[in-house]
Amino acid sequence: MRDFAETSGVRVEALPPAGMVTLRGDLSDPRLGDALNAVGLALPDRRRIAAGSAGSTVWMSPDELLVVCGEGEDRGLAARLSEALAGVHHLAAAVGDARVRFAIDGKGARIALAKIAPADMAAFEIGEVRRTRVAQVAAAFWMTGPDAFELVCFRSVADYAGKLLASAAGNVEGIALP
Amino acid sequence: MLLIECPYCGVKAEETELAAGGEAHLTRHGPDSAEEAFAAYLFDRLNPKGVHFERWRHVNGCGKWFHCARDTATLEVFGTYSAQTSAPPQTILDAIRARRPDWKPANAPAE
Predict the structure, then answer these.
(1) Which residues of chain A does B63 touch, with a Cβ-Cβ cutoff of 8 Å?
(2) Considering the domain boundaries, does residue A59 fall inside one?
(3) Is residue A86 classed as helix, strand or coil in its secondary structure?
(4) CB–CB of B60 and A64 under 8 A?
(5) What is the mean pLDDT of chain B?
(6) CA distances from A40 to A37, A56, A77, A177, B68 (A)
(7) Are the beta carbons of B16 and A47 separated by less than 8 Å?
(8) Is residue A2 in a domain?
(9) Which of A13, A28, A126, A169 is deepest in the core (most CB within 10 A)?
(10) A contact test, residue of B9, B58, B64, B82 with most A CBs within 10 A
(11) Mean pLDDT within A48-75
């Protein structure tokens, strides 16, 4: 992956590959939370990310989570989740190969994302997750720290997303969020 | 700009994050039904100027379908509710009546 250049104080960087697992199932079922805990993961609240010893769990919808773990660990983790969820209707699939991650940080990071996503960036909080679109492609991002975001999108649109983020990261001075 | 709250994500999603799914609470008439009923199911729509019930999908988000009650003329949204229902819930009807006291349900979605 190429690195996307630093522009006007907002740094956009393609992050190294990570393992990812899509877990679908009824998140309100306590057995699902127990299974997550059993493999070292935590159940996040709605639109939140939860950290665990085996990886971070990102809320995607009332019946979908995205687990971000170490590179190459997703297949094993998906198998352990399926084992822990035996008898419970679910799907655990390793999807790390199909996704890429970007880090967006710097003082204007909120503004850079507000330019390309129809999300309320002024009220965005640390640990909050937003599954939305960036310009023309689907993406999800969450806030990892003050003025720092991580974004995940499909690998097939990685080049578009990287160039888009680099472009959005330019000219953020003097723009204020409402 | 139309802002509709997704009942699953709880975000006020902007129109471009959603996909419109047309009129809500239609009763399906399949190929075995009478021709008039099948044609009405396929083609007859209320298309009101005013209060309307619609299906929407949070396509660039959680991907879920839901229902929305809104005013097609003013774009005022009265509320959103689960897709797993065949009639608007009382809370939505109350919200509409609070804003439009003389509103009468067209086709009277069962109350």
Answers:
(1) 61
(2) yes
(3) coil
(4) no
(5) 92
(6) 5, 10, 10, 38, 39
(7) no
(8) no
(9) A169
(10) B9
(11) 97
Positive or negative, the Cα torsion across B43, B46, B48, B50? negative
What is the residue range of B91's domain?
Answer: 3-99
CB contact (8 A) between residue A119 and residue B8: no
Question: A171 pLDDT exceeds 90?
Answer: no
Looking at chain A, which runs of residues are DSSP E strands? 11-14, 19-25, 49-51, 56-61, 64-69, 90-94, 99-105, 129-134, 137-145, 148-154
- Pick the more confident residue, B111 or A152: A152
pLDDT in tens, A107-138: 889 999 999 999 999 999 999 999 999 999 99
Tens-digit pLDDT profile for residues B48-94:
999 999 999 999 999 999 999 999 999 999 999 999 999 999 999 99
- Domain presence at residue B104: no
Q: Residue B111 — pLDDT band, cuts 50, 70, 90? A: very low
Residue in the block written with tokens 């199909």: A98
Measured CA distances, A110 to A17, A131, A138, B85 (Å):
24, 15, 18, 38
- Specify the CATH number for the domain of residue A30: 3.30.70.1520
Q: How many CB pairs under 8 A join A and B?
A: 36
Residue labelled with tokens 């979908």: A64
**What DSSP state is assigned to residue A10?**
B
Inform me whether the C-beta atom of residue A123 falls under 8 Å from chain B C-beta atoms: no
